[in-house]
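Reviewer 2 asked us to include a model.

Predict the structure of this chain.
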Amino acid sequence: MADLNLDILVSPTYSTLTLGVIDNSTYVTTPPSVTDPTIKITVPGFDPVELDFNFNTINIFDSFDLNLSEEGVSNSIPDGIYTLEYSVNDGENIVSVTKFIMRIDKLQEKFDEAFMTLDMMECDRAIKKQSKVELTSIYFFIQGSIAAANNCSLYNSNKLYKKAEKMLDSFIKQDCGCSGNNFLINYF
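Predicted model (structure tokens):
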């Protein structure tokens, strides 16, 4: 089928509990004349799981769907490099597309918390500026990890993720001396 172009995109769900995958494929007809849409998802450190997939929409998966928890239990889905393989039957062959993605939702949640803490603290200008520089550096490592996975550079993706995580943990542990009374304590 010449006009069949399979494609999937990972959609942000803004939750560590779900994974959203969008069918971004181009089909010959609407509704698609292909059959048996399935997606095989490999969560890092776990066996692949094959799931039914819906055409032309966002598909949301949770920890139960991915065989990471019992039914009725919602656990966070781990970060890491995922392999997603979307397949359909075009009447003659099984056609598929495989994508690698770096899931960073848990790290992003931690980054957001650190960022919000920075905005709420009453630090002096130099300390606040340095903290912003550190958070910007961490953000670039996170984005680099995503870009590396999108370009199938899985080793570099993991390396950048671990660097961002280490930097973020260090940032969270540090105490900038902010108390709201910083100016009074240090200058009077």
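The beta strands are 8-11, 18-23, 35-42, 49-52, 58-62, 80-89, 94-103. The CA atoms of residues 115 and 135 lie 7 Å apart. We have added this to the supplementary material.
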